Amino acid sequence: MDEISLDPTSPEFTARRAEARKALDALDPAKNLEMRGGAADDPLRRDWFEAVYARAQNDPARVPWANLAPHPLTKAWVGAQVKGIAGLRALDVGCGLGDNAECLAEAGAEVTAFDLVEAAVEWAKRRFPRTTVDYRAGDLFAPPADWRGKFALVHECYTLQALSAPLLPKALAELSSFLAPGGKLLIVARARGEDAEAEGPPWPLPPSIFTEARRQGLKPLSIEDIEATADVGRRHWRALLGRADEP
């Protein structure tokens, strides 16, 4: 590949991303009306996610969610932990190219990170050859049995919003199942009003997601409704949840 900009703020990077996004939308059964008939056979859109990484050809600009840095809301939360997260066993869900997982690891957590797409996992390993993160390919809906009740911190950034509404209850139940006693789930996602039109994917999450979380064994400990800023261009939730069976 010729020399290209890897600065996500550069016009060149932005242009490559826009070009790739247009092509990827045309392949996405969730966006392409002509392809929706086959979407029921692939509810996780695995084929589409695999196509994203295959078509990227090692150019992160062509992976729409790859900004080569931790999400600002994740990074700020990790940095604000007065007691720290050093030594905590943490799980990063939908790790992509690894930036959020590495942020947790740099803070001292013992991190396992997984993604639905093997190519994403291998790319993350190449980017961070000296990492302490245990990167794996995996499916949120078919996790290893030994993950149940094992993690003090579970981090989910942009995975829930990539799922259609019928999958959200099961996804929340799976996230809840990973928490050890006293464990916490950190959710970072785009937000919308309850009655706002949800065009996607991604599908911004409405406030009722936290009502559903309660039904799936989770209780909100803090919910931040964050308006668009220079760092975060859209309204977001940053929410910390714990196990509902704990006081």
UniProtKB/TrEMBL annotation:
The keyword Disulfide bond does not apply. The keyword S-adenosyl-L-methionine applies. Residues 91-183 form the Methyltransferase domain. InterPro entries: Methyltransf_25, SAM-dependent_MTases_sf. Keywords: Methyltransferase, S-adenosyl-L-methionine, Transferase. SUPFAM superfamilies: S-adenosyl-L-methionine-dependent methyltransferases. GO terms for biological process: methylation. This is Methyltransferase domain-containing protein.
